[in-house]
Design a protein that fits this description.
flat; disordered C terminus; Beta-Lactamase; about 15% strand; about 725 residues; alpha+beta
């Protein structure tokens, strides 16, 4: 930015007094503002209040920190506080309970295995089952159905003997709901504590098939039996032939002849084992999940939505259950199935070599740490009481210390408000009294100084106002000149770039007809001596067409060069009239192609060069007719639309369409996408030049070939130039 030198002589100002006056004015302004706000904030800003607050806060901080250290511990030290000790103690209790329950469940499963093995290998079971299977085979060969088979089998002596034995086992152990003996060959129930189950086909059940394949007792996954909403699982073991039987020795000893299955109600067995009692409070709970994370027993608490989940129907995604089901063991601080923060211990209980249960023992942290939270509340209550007591004591002490200072503050406020006659009373001989005497002397000096400066300020203010007006006017002139210069530079750069492109294009396209003429002149030199009149005539025709094309290119270039400025005075131009005039000018081609033209009735009125704007509209309509293609129902629409307050005029056709990659290229000089269409390729470049000279823009919208094209352009509204001359304007109207 060039240095600005104001016109006229500079006033000689006294810098030092003027600066002092400014400092005093600023100080007075701040003082007045502080005085206005003092009545509202004096209690909070006073030294007395701050002393009281600082002493109280220090006291409370000490009490709170001591209590917090006792409850929460001290960071980066071995002291964990009661909170950490309580947490560690609960983790130990949870681990102990989880280990105990894990051991009990594992022991209970071992008892189940021993029960089914002992029952299946007894002499009564082996001998009676072998006899019953043979009887069942004989009856099955003659019986017509399950009812007849069941009726005949139940009358057999071996059936009665084995039924009494199974009832005895059920009564002795008391842990099994039903006991079945299943034929190993057919999968049919031979005998059961529930006679209605006799003859049922269980050959597809996993516990039946697994028992036949294993030498060890098999424990099935927990399921919901048909007609029984309670979870159950089965113990199964294969019954083999007795070695002393002669038939056994012929067929091969040890062949399984049946499978003994014991049905176990999970809730009856597991609930007593998982019961927590009062040891872990209201929220303490132990639960079992399978390897998919589904609960195997009823939960103690409902879910967050209030529903009570049923076993094997709800999957728990909480971390302790997930880890336990995956075979891991440990303790963790996490969240439970209800989203509550808990401390949990989790264990894995193997049931088979490839399957097991997950055990989780947990307690809510809210219940665990409730006593410590109560201690924290008591600590904060004591701190609040301490604040109130110390505020009172500190206020009394601070009041005695700050009374002389308040007197000085009152005097300073009066001076800041403009009362230079105010003086502070000197009541002590200490530092406060010395400060009061110094303040009074300063006020007297400022009072004399203020009178002198007032006159200088008035004079300086008047001089500055005059100088400022001169500077503002000159800066405005220089800014305007700088903007005009930058505008001319940009316009010159644009013209140079356009001229370079124009020169290259013209030299290329004008050279083509000349090359054609030159080439056929060479051919004429050969054809004329030979007397071939027909070939000579064809060569002359081609040379004539090339010369005509060159003449047409020169005419178009001449027309384009004349659009360097608006040669006609601008005026208001109704686009509706302009569109109808353009259609009339291209009427012959429109009628020849049978094109339907639709002109909107509410086209806007623009401001510009009427002949040039007519040329724009005519070229757009002519271009649409030429590129209509093979459209059976050719149609052209001339209209306008308003987008964000800008009026956009358009000429839309349903013709050949334009690929998006050519949307910019078609506005170049001599650019033609279809050489079979008449024209030199200057029309769209001419239109673009006219629209841009009016301060507008033009573009094409088309989705591609056979999709039609819409040529859009804008003409800015009329506005006044820097010297008051009218410039093109856009009139906003409602579009069709």
């Amino acid at each position: 930015m060039p240095e600005v030198i104001p016109a006229g002589p500079k006033p000689q100002l006294s810098t030092k007094p003027f600066q002092a006056e400014k400092d005093f004015a600023a100080m007075s302004s701040r003082g007045i503002a502080d005085a206005n706000n003092h009545s509202r904030r004096s209690w909070f800003r006073s030294i007395r209040t701050r002393l009281a607050l600082w002493f109280s806060l220090a006291f409370v901080a000490v009490i709170v920190l001591v209590q917090l250290a006792d409850i929460l511990g001290i960071p980066f030290t071995s002291h964990e506080g009661r909170w950490g000790e309580r947490k560690a103690e609960m983790f130990r209790s949870l681990s102990l309970i989880a280990d105990l329950k894990q051991e009990r469940i594992a022991h209970r499963l071992k008892e189940f295995r021993d029960d089914v093995r002992l029952s299946a290998t007894s002499d009564v079971m082996e001998k009676t089952v072998l006899a019953l299977t043979r009887t069942a085979d004989r009856i099955a060969a003659t019986a017509c159905g399950d009812e007849e088979f069941r009726s005949l089998l139940c009358k057999e002596e071996a059936f009665g003997k084995l039924k009494r034995y199974l009832d005895f086992i059920k009564q002795i152990y008391g842990a099994y709901a039903d006991i079945h003996v299943i034929d190993a060959a057919t999968g049919r129930v031979l005998v059961s504590t529930d006679e209605t189950a006799v003859a049922d086909d269980l050959s597809e059940q996993s516990y039946f098939l697994s028992a036949l394949r294993s030498d060890e007792p098999y424990i099935s996954p927990i399921t919901l039996a048909a007609g029984n909403p309670r979870p159950i699982f089965y113990l199964s073991y294969a019954i083999h032939e007795h070695e002393s039987d002669p038939q056994t020795l012929e067929d091969g000893a040890g062949r399984p002849v049946a499978v003994l299955t014991l049905e176990v109600d999970t809730d009856d067995i597991m609930k007593p084992t998982l019961h927590m009692g009062d040891g872990l409070g209201e929220s303490g709970e132990a639960l079992l999940v399978n390897r998919e994370g589904k609960i195997l027993t009823s939960l103690k608490h409902p879910l967050p939505d209030g529903t009570v989940p049923k076993p094997l129907e709800h999957e728990i995604t909480a971390e302790p259950a997930t880890y336990a089901a995956g075979g891991e063991e440990g303790i963790m601080d996490s969240r439970d199935y209800g989203g509550k923060a808990v401390l949990a211990a989790y264990r894995y209980i193997p049931v088979t070599p490839d399957r097991g249960w997950g055990l989780v023992v947990k307690i809510d942290k809210a219940e665990l740490f409730a006593p410590l939270r109560a201690d924290l509340m008591r600590t904060f209550a004591l701190g609040l009481i301490g604040v109130l007591v110390f505020v009172g004591l500190a206020a009394v002490l601070a009041g005695n210390l700050t009374r002389p200072l308040r007197a000085l503050s009152g005097t300073a406020e009066r001076v800041a408000a403009g009362d230079f006659s105010a003086r502070s009373p000197v009541t002590t001989s200490d530092e406060v009294g010395l400060l009061a005497r110094m303040l009074n002397a300063m006020i007297e000096h400022v009072e004399n100084w203020h009178t002198e400066l007032s006159d200088q300020v008035q004079q300086h203010t008047a001089d500055l106002c005059r100088t400022n007006k001169q500077l503002v006017a000159e800066i405005a002139d220089r800014k305007r000149a700088e903007q005009e210069r930058e505008g001319l530079i940009r316009e010159l750069e644009s013209k140079n770039a356009e001229l370079e492109r124009f020169t290259y294009t013209v030299s290329h396209d004008l050279k083509s007809p000349l090359i054609t003429i030159k080439g056929y002149l060479s051919l004429l030199k050969k054809d004329i001596p030979g007397g071939d009149a027909r070939t000579v005539d064809e060569d002359l025709t081609i040379m004539t067409h090339a010369a005509d094309r060159m003449a047409q290119l020169l005419a178009d270039l001449l027309d384009l060069s004349r659009i360097g400025r608006l040669i006609n005075p601008p005026e208001e131009v109704p686009l509706g009239d302009l569109a109808r005039a353009a259609v009339d000018l291209v009427g012959g081609q429109i009628e020849q192609r049978g094109v339907e033209v639709d002109i909107s009735s509410d086209l806007p009125v623009v401001f510009g060069d009427r002949p040039r704007l007519l040329e724009v509209m005519q070229n757009l309509v002519d271009n649409a007719v030429k590129h209509m293609g093979d459209q059976p129902e050719p149609r052209i629409e001339i209209g306008a639309r308003s987008v964000n307050g800008e009026m956009i005029c358009y000429v839309r056709d349903n013709g050949m369409g334009i690929e998006p990659r050519y949307h910019e290229k078609i506005f170049g000089l001599f650019e033609k996408l279809d050489n079979s269409v008449e024209g030199s390729g200057v029309g769209l470049a001419l239109i673009k030049r006219i629209v841009e000279l009016h301060g507008g823009r033009i573009w094409v919208e088309s989705e591609g070939m056979e999709k039609g094209s819409t040529f859009c352009f804008t003409i800015p509204p009329e506005r006044k130039g820097p010297r008051g001359e009218p410039e093109p304007r856009r009139v906003h109207v409602n579009t069709k």
